[in-house]
Design brief:
- The chain has 10 helices and no strands.
- With 303 residues, it is mainly alpha-helical.
- It is globular, with a radius of gyration of 19 Å.
- It has one domain.
């Protein structure tokens, strides 16, 4: 274990809600509105944690375990990611596979909690989440495999935290394709437009939000916090792949990382403001297109 690597998860805990705030303010700017404060999610989490929760009589311990264990799984995944010029807290060959398993575990726990309610709407959302994740996860695995081949490392410390300008000069086409595919997966996995609309409240068209309709109080706070942490984790992964700033200075590397994360939040806000949500039957085509980018990246490496 590298104690310095715990600073990365600490950054996520502190700044993940702010990352979502930047997205919301960007969307508000394009809509001609003032928008909520940048710290709105912090206020919401504080309010929810002070409230009580009303549980359905049909739910079991699975419903209560889902939010807390989901956050724990994402936090565990964050300990494997190098961030802000610091190495990961835990690193070993093939750790990127464990990263995918941990993110998948968080998703599974949310789906299990939704199914535990016995609601047909939440079951519908869980089935959609399972179907689309089955298309998104292989894409992310192929992207990390391609980046591993470019970097020459099999650990995230080298794949994400060790890419240099020389790697970019040698494998720029591959890394551009990988970055585009990872961005598509990020939008899909975090229920963002064009795959899902986090602001909608129409059960028939929701994917992620419909799974958490029965959560309230501290449970809903854990759901929102876990979603923010997952978005931060995938954003940190994308920034690590696309930002070859490795000066060795913690101030420079950390500042570049935070600036790139802020820019990514603006990019996501611009995408959500300029692109319409896809029809449900078009989402698989969107993910297959991301998969095609990943396959072409692999082909470029192996040629």
């Amino acid at each position: 274990m590298n104690p310095e690597g715990l600073a990365g998860p600490a950054l996520a805990v502190l700044f993940a809600p702010l990352f979502l705030g930047l997205i919301q303010r960007t969307k508000a700017f394009f809509a001609g509105r003032t928008g909520p404060p940048l710290l709105q999610l912090y206020f919401d989490l504080g309010k929810l944690l002070r409230k009580g929760a009303v549980l359905s009589r049909t739910t079991t311990w699975v419903f209560g375990l889902g939010p807390v264990a989901g956050v724990a799984a994402v936090l565990a995944a964050l300990t494997l990611l190098p961030q802000a010029g610091l190495p990961a807290a835990f690193a070993f060959p093939g750790d990127f596979i464990l990263l995918l398993y941990l993110l998948g575990t968080a998703r599974f726990l949310t789906m299990a909690a939704a199914l535990d309610t016995g609601s047909s709407f939440e079951g519908m959302g869980a089935s959609r989440e399972a179907a689309f994740s089955a298309l998104a996860e292989p894409v992310l695995l192929l992207c990390l495999a391609a980046a591993a081949r470019v970097s020459g490392h099999t650990s995230l410390n080298g794949i994400v935290g060790g890419l240099t300008e020389a790697d970019w000069q040698r494998g720029a086409p591959v890394l551009v394709l990988v970055g585009a595919a990872v961005l598509a997966v990020l939008l899909a996995e975090n229920a963002r437009i064009p795959v899902d609309d986090p602001s909608t409240h129409l059960e028939l068209t929701m994917i992620h939000e419909v799974m958490v309709l029965d959560h309230g109080g501290p449970d809903l706070a854990m759901i929102l916090w876990g979603a923010a942490l997952k978005l931060w984790a995938m954003g940190a992964l994308l920034v690590g792949l696309l930002l070859p700033v490795r000066t060795g200075s913690l101030v420079v590397d950390g500042g570049a990382f935070l600036l790139a994360m802020a820019l990514l939040a603006v990019v996501i806000g611009v995408v959500e403001s300029t692109i319409a949500r896809l029809r449900m039957n078009r989402v698989p085509q969107f993910l297959v297109g991301a998969g095609a980018f990943a396959v072409v990246a692999i082909a470029l490496i192996l040629r």
